[in-house]
Amino acid sequence: MTRFANLKRQNDWESSWEVWWVKHIKFILEREETIRGPYSEEDNQVLTRYLRPLESGGRSIEPALCHTDLWPGNVKYRLDNKSPLAHSELELGLFRNPQYPLGKAFFKEYLKKVPISKPEENFDSGNIMYMIRHQVCLASVYPNEAKLRDIFLANMRILVDRVSAEENEKKRAEENKNPFEVNVMSVTKNVKVLAT
């Protein structure tokens, strides 16, 4: 157990980043829900959508010791007592948060040193997911700031909409496949032509 400000935080080792993240995000979301009550389960489910591809199809992530609380007033400290071994991109979630902008130059410099994990097309959505983690923690640290919940829920809705659009696109692609389409080259490749 470590801390985020005055709040305890789950930080046990797991062999899979997805397993660690699910336990961690569940822990911090449940804590926030005790303050303000429940919200849509659909919103909650998108927070794991972009994890499995990081560790499937022969891909893996190398755990990195992450600060997880880099903001302009805290950048001078390399690590602190709550630094987890995590996916390196977890660090970037806070960089995206409008409350703590470190600037695009800092973001680009970070990515020069630590490349984007594959599949790269999931990077932006994964970054929003990691930003939401920071926003949920802030919403818990400042229970009297109801707008903090509105902010992270709005960002969850962005992911819900993206997931919905991705699933609709996949469904359309499947529907547009012609089941009667035949690859002529594969059919004729081994056919002997009889001469008359």
From TrEMBL:
<dbReference type="InterPro" id="IPR011009">
    <property type="entry name" value="Kinase-like_dom_sf"/>
</dbReference>
<dbReference type="GO" id="GO:0102193">
    <property type="term" value="F:protein-ribulosamine 3-kinase activity"/>
</dbReference>
<protein>
    <recommendedName>
        <fullName>protein-ribulosamine 3-kinase</fullName>
        <ecNumber>2.7.1.172</ecNumber>
    </recommendedName>
</protein>
<dbReference type="InterPro" id="IPR016477">
    <property type="entry name" value="Fructo-/Ketosamine-3-kinase"/>
</dbReference>
<dbReference type="Pfam" id="PF03881">
    <property type="entry name" value="Fructosamin_kin"/>
</dbReference>
